[in-house]
Specification:
heterodimer; A: 110 residues; mainly beta; five-stranded antiparallel β-sheet; 11 strands; 0% helix; globular; B: 116 residues; four-stranded antiparallel β-sheet; 62% strand
Amino acid sequence: EDQVTQSPEALRLQEGESSSLNCSYTVSGLRGLFWYRQDPGKGPEFLFTLYSAGEEKEKERLKATLTKKESFLHITAPKPEDSATYLCAVQAPGNTPLVFGKGTRLSVIA
Amino acid sequence: DAGITQSPRHKVTETGTPVTLRCHQTENHRYMYWYRQDPGHGLRLIHYSYGVKDTDKGEVSDGYSVSRSKTEDFLLTLESATSSQTSVYFCAIGKTSGGSSYNEQFFGPGTRLTVL
C-alpha cells in the first residue's frame, strides 16, 4: 500500500530562521511527488512536481528536493506570509490517484 | 486560477437527507476528483472520474455516489447524510502532461458540510 508520512506535524519558526519539512514515501514505482500549500479555509495550492531522484525545484523562498525515499521542502529565510499547511502527495504509475500525507503546519513568527 | 468552482460553499443539513455537491470546471480537463478533508486524516479520495460517465471509487467511497454527464460538471451525492460525513469537501481537476503520465491536481475552494 502506498504511504506518505510528513514530519514534523507542526513547526514554529522565527522570521528568517531557515528549516526543512520532510515527506517520506513508500510507493511501487514513483511517478511523481507533489507539494501543495494550504491556507486556512482554502483549497490546496499546487507548488511543485518532482519526477526523479536528484531533481530540485525552487520558487521564491521554497526549494523542493527528491531522493528515492523522501522529499524535503526547504524554506529559506521564511516570512510570516509563508505560514500555512504544506502537503505532500505521491502518484504511482498508471494514472493512479494521488496519495496525500497529513501535512506539516508551519507558523512563522515576526 | 484553474477555473474550478464548487457549490454550495457552506451547507448545514440533517441526518438522513440527501445532499448533492457540485463541482464545475471551465477548462475541459478529463480527470476530476472528490476528496474530503478531516483533522487527523488529511485529504482522502472519495471518487474520481476519467471522462464523461467514467468514474471509479476512492479510499472512502461508502455512502457517496457521483455522476458526470458533462465534461465540466462532477456531482457528489450523499445518499443519506450521516454525522460522520460532516467534513470539508474539495473537488480537484487533473492536468496531465507527457501524454497522461503525470497528473498535477488543482483544487477548488471547498464546501464545508455540517450534518446535524
